[in-house]
Each structure stands twice: as structure tokens, then as C-alpha cells.
Sequence to fold (415 residues):
Amino acid sequence: MAHIADRYHRQTLLPEIQAAGQMRLSQAQVLLIGCGALGCNIAQQLVRGGVGRLRLVDRDLVDLTNLQRQVLFTEEDAREQTPKAIAAAKWLTQVNSTVTIEPVVADVHSGNVQEIASERGFRPTVILDGTDNAGTRYLVNDLAVREGIPWIYGACVGVEGRVMGVVPGQTPCLRCIYPEPPGPGEVATCDTAGVLGAAAAVVGALQAAVAIRLIVSGEVPEGLLALDVWLMRFRAIGTAIARREDCICCGKREYEFLNRPMRLDAESLCGRNAVQIRPASKEEAQVDLRALATRLTSSGVVHAHEVFLRFEPAEQKDLALSVFWDGRVIVSGTDDLAVARMMVAKYVGH
Amino acid sequence: MTIKVNGEERELATGTTVAQLLEQLKFTPRNVAVELNRRLLRSDRYETVLKDGDAVEIVTFVGGG
Fold:
């Protein structure tokens, strides 16, 4: 116990935290969905701050264009195309080995989010939003409201950000404020509009602060914060009376996004010249990575890892296929869905 | 009449509704949250007529990260 007190001395000095708050942090289980710019900053703050258990989930591989803002990754991770969850866990363990860090390399969707949030005795104290798209956020909102788990919405694009803590039953949920997600192409993404690393760092740090307050005190600050780091303008919209009894999610308790079948089988990934192809059936999701590695050796270069393999076809040197344990394939070097589907059909067989 | 939109003063025709203001500023209503005089305005109340001196904050949905 003595070394814990020493390690967190500057934090337990805070009247907001003290020894009792630090104890609550050390017992907290945090589910972080997405380990991009927001997720890296959130994870770093919570691991340094001493949460008990952090399960971090990400579907993607580290890419050179990530390094401008995703603070847990190195040039070596980009060269090796390490899965983000694994690269982050490695780094975070070096920062604070007393935190139990559980990387999960997976794409979160309606078919697996419940399992990811609860398998191996996990009981999230809070869910942190590090995702890069609206669909996953509405899915997280559904899960959080249904299970009564607080979650911290955070998002950024360009030089702007948003933050809001959601405590089901106490505060408005995402759908009380924004009843429907934007249609395809209606709002800017990091892919189209870019993002300033400092804006993501501010948003991620605020999400971490809200999560720490929630863990320590059970409360979140009221309001939806909108910020612009370029103008240095922060404004919080009052949400005290914004909870809606007719909210489809927290009012009527209809979980449209959880109940919706899996999304598209192929999609372009945010900010990357890459396409993800998801298996269409459970049968296709059963991949024997070792057998596949052996089979592909005659057609190009294969790097086999524990949870995925990377294949560079000899006939098409500008493309690479990363095949994961769960049957997903990321085709790097193209954003053409048809080209990616063809490569997957040819080499992986689905 | 003069109202404040996201901190900046703006002249509007008398009788302008929140929905009309959003249209003038080219916002898609379902992608914004609107605060009128420090209170969130529900999306089914966008026909509310603005008054001189009102303060409106428009916060677009952000989905990146």
C-alpha cells in the first residue's frame, strides 16, 4: 500500500480525490472503445491516474498518419503495423504496471458489444468513448442506457471538440440531445476535414477528468461542452432539463442500434487508405491463421503474429492484407471497396 | 431585431423562427443541438419564434475522434 500512496501522492493531495478517491479509482473497471487520438489520451490519463482495470478495444492497425495525434504509438509500431490495442497496452504497461490492461483487437458492433463489455468477469464502472464514427457512439449509448452504465461522450474534428458525461437515469442521454445520428456524409470526419492533435488531446483529457470525477464521486458535470481550440472558445450548453421522457432510448427504452443487425460488410476506414471487410457469417469468422499463413507463403510475404497475420501479395506490392483471428480483413493501400473485396476473395476465400 | 448566435450579434427579420434561422445558416436540423437563452431547446420546438435580445447557441454533432 505504501508505494501506491507514494505513486499517486500529487493526486491524493487533491481535496477532490484524497485516499478514499484513490481507492475507488484502484477498484474501477474502465471500458475504452476506440484507441485513436481520443483513446490514446484517455487511456494515458486513466492509467497514470491508477484505475484498477482498463479494457481497451480497437479494430485497426497503427499507420504512419496516426503518429501526429495518437500519443501511445511509435514509428516502429507504424512500420510493423501493430494492432493499436496491442501497441497501446504495451506502452501503458511500461507507464503503470499496477493497472490490469486488457487489449482487445476487435471491431465493435451490435453482435459483439455486449460480450466485449462483460466477458471474463468484467463489470464496467464507466465506458469511455474513443470511437471515430457516429454509429458506434449510438451503439454505446444504447448499451450504456440498457445496462445502466455511465459513459463519457467525446468527439473531435478539425479544431473543435465535444464532451458530455451521461449517467443513465440521471442525465440526458446522447439521443435526448441528438435524437438521430447524421446521415452518411452529412458531417465532417477526420478523414475529410483533418484533426489537430492538440484538439484531440484537450477532448481526451476532459473525458478522462469527467471519468475520474464520476469514479470518485458518482457525479458528472452538467452540460454538453463545445470547444474550439483555435478560437480558445469553450461553451457549455445547459442540459439540466434536457432529459426527454419521449427519448427513444432512455425514455422509451428501445435500443435500435443494439437490435440492428451488423453493419456493412465492407467499409473504408477513417483517415486511412484502407478497407475493412467483415465476414458475412459465423462460419467465415472461423479462421485458422496458422493454416492460412502456410497456404499464403507461396503467393507472397507472410508475417504471422498471435492474433493476426499480415500478407503482402507478390503480384500487387502496393497492397497488404491483415487477417485477424475474428475473420476480419483490413486491406491497406486502397480505398476501393471492390478491389479490397476481390483481394479478400482471392487470398482468404470470403 | 438583434439576437446573438454563438456569441456573435446578428440582425434578423421580426418573426424569424429557430427553424428558419437554422435554414438561413445552412444547418441540417437533426445534426444540431440548439440552446435558447441557456436552455436546450427540444428538436420538436424549433418553430419557436425568436425575440429581440435572444441568445442562441448552435452545437453541431461531432462524430470524429
